[in-house]
Amino acid sequence: MIKTLLLIGTGGFAGSVSRYLLTKLISTKWPMAFPWGTFGVNILGCFLIGIVMGLSFQSAMSTQTRLLLATGFCGGFTTFSTYSLEIFELYQRGEAGISMLYLFSSIVVGFMSVGLGLWLVKVFYQN
């Protein structure tokens, strides 16, 4: 159990630091009302977890690696609590249109990104 928690914690640390750095980079390069940093991280996180789980489904990955990458890294990397807060803040600032665009585009594009990750593994991981 300790090994499992250390794997998840290590992955979570790496994911959280990566999320912070990537969000900061995107937000600095493209400062706009739309939260591109968090949006990009959420979509990339969905894509990555699709790949990780796709590999896991193909038995190409150990349980420990899945815990490190899916539960740990992707869990620390994705930012849906921040996403919800930003939607609320946009709405409060009177930017209801951007708020709704952000809400629905994150869900739809995230869903499609998970599917794309799973599909890529299926296509390229042929035994």
Keywords:
single chain; 127 residues; mainly alpha; 5 helices; globular
User: What portion of residues belong to β-strands?
Assistant: under 5%
Mean pLDDT equals: 93
Number of domains: 1
Identify the overall geometry: globular
Which regions are unreliable across 5 or more consecutive residues at pLDDT < 50? none
- Largest beta-sheet details: none
The helix-strand sequence is: HHHHH
Report the structural category. Answer: mainly alpha
| Rg, Å, rounded | 16 Å
Query: How many E-type strands?
Result: 0
Could you give the distance between the termini? 32 Å
Multimeric status of the protein: single chain
What count of helical segments does DSSP give?
5
Helix fraction, binned, reads over 70%
Function: Fluoride-specific ion channel. Important for reducing fluoride concentration in the cell, thus reducing its toxicity.
Subcellular location: Cell membrane
Keywords: Cell inner membrane, Cell membrane, Ion channel, Ion transport, Membrane, Metal-binding, Sodium, Transmembrane, Transmembrane helix, Transport
Main location: membrane
